[in-house]
Amino acid sequence: MYREAEQRLWKHYGLEPSERFIELSSPAVTLRVVELGSGPPVLFIPGTAGTGPYWGPLVRALSGFRCLMLDRPGWGLSTPLDYTSVDYRATIADLLRGLLDTLEIEKADVVGASIGDLWAFQLASRDPARVGRVVLLGGGPIVAEAGVPPIVRLIASPIGAVMVRLAQKPGRVRAFMRQAGHAASLDAGRIPEEYVSWRVAFERETDSMRNERNMVRSIVSWRTGLRAGVTFDDAELADIEQPTLLVYGTADPVGTAEIWRRVVDAMPRAELQLVDGAGHMPWLDDPSAVADAITRFIGTPQLDRAPRS
């Protein structure tokens, strides 16, 4: 059972989080939020292949924060959302705003990963009063030049309808992890077997991948890449006033260090930190380095200085 695999992975990390389900009316969706720790609220928004315990090695290394880990709609144990008839960027901002309202959180720091980077920027851009600082982990569909990972383009293609219905196997999980830049950590045993078993159970026993394909197809054309209007242009990046940290692993296949340096330079309060040898989910390779970066960044008052001129 999926729940059992999830609990085994949490146990491997020595963590016992709580969970709650949030009912929203606009958009109409039920969201699962997994919570751990106490202190200032930090909202974690995952990418494809992520929910609850995939944050485990990172949140284990964090202290002094109330970590709120969201299952995006249709992903994990949240109910699906039809993105085909809505404005994607406006809808995800509305959803995150509604989530914070229901949790009675006036303002939170936000950590995104992969497509969660785009979600974090949407809330920061459309409702800046609700977001303190933003941390982006790994490359994501923020700017068009970052491109679309081949696996995501494949999911959006006609063959993706078959892919997301295939019974997952450990070998395919490991192959995906290698393609995402985590080969060294797999070989060194830093990514535990409990993680692989959880990913297998996740795809076999939830509808997450089928729901994710529907979401991906609303923002990605398998022929041409990201659809118009999804990413941020330079003017929009310049308007994001929140202090932003982008943590990028040098083995991450999404974008390049040069692209992310340009993105950071286009923003008034942003910085880039590279993690040598880390892949698309850098906290799986070096959780201490990523946790230290987040703690330093979120806990540094001088980041509230005026924007760069």
What's this entry about, in short?
With 309 residues, this protein is an alpha/beta fold.
Description:
With 309 residues, this protein is α/β, with parallel strands linked by helices. The protein has a single domain (2-299), classed as 3-Layer(aba) Sandwich (Rossmann fold). Helices cover 41% and strands 18% of the residues. It has 14 helices and 10 strands. The strands form 2 sheets. It has an 8-stranded mixed beta sheet with strand order 1-2-4-3-5-6-9-10, with helices on both faces. A two-stranded antiparallel ribbon has the order 7-8. β5, α4 and β6 (131-137) form a beta-alpha-beta unit. The longest helix is centred in the N-terminal third of the chain and has 15 residues, at 88-102. The protein is globular and about 45 Å long. 46% of the residues are buried. Residues 301-309 have low confidence and may be disordered.
Tag the structure with descriptive keywords.
Rossmann fold, 10 strands, 18% strand, 41% helix, two-stranded antiparallel sheet, 309 residues, disordered C terminus, 8-stranded mixed β-sheet, single chain, alpha/beta
Classify the secondary structure makeup into a structural class. alpha/beta
CATH superfamily: Alpha/Beta hydrolase fold, catalytic domain
The largest sheet has its strands arranged as 1-2-4-3-5-6-9-10
What percentage of residues falls in helices of 4 or more residues?
A: 40-55%
Domains, number:
1
Show the helix and strand layout:
Blueprint lengths: L1 H11 L5 E8 L2 E9 L4 E5 L10 H6 L4 E5 L17 H15 L5 E6 L1 H12 L4 E7 L12 H7 L3 H4 L6 H10 L3 H6 L4 H13 L2 H12 E2 L3 E2 L7 H5 L5 E6 L7 H9 L4 E6 L6 H4 L1 H12 L11
Parallel strand pairs: 3-4, 3-5, 5-6, 6-9, 9-10
Antiparallel strand pairs: 1-2, 2-4, 7-8
Helix pairs in contact: 1-9, 3-4, 5-10
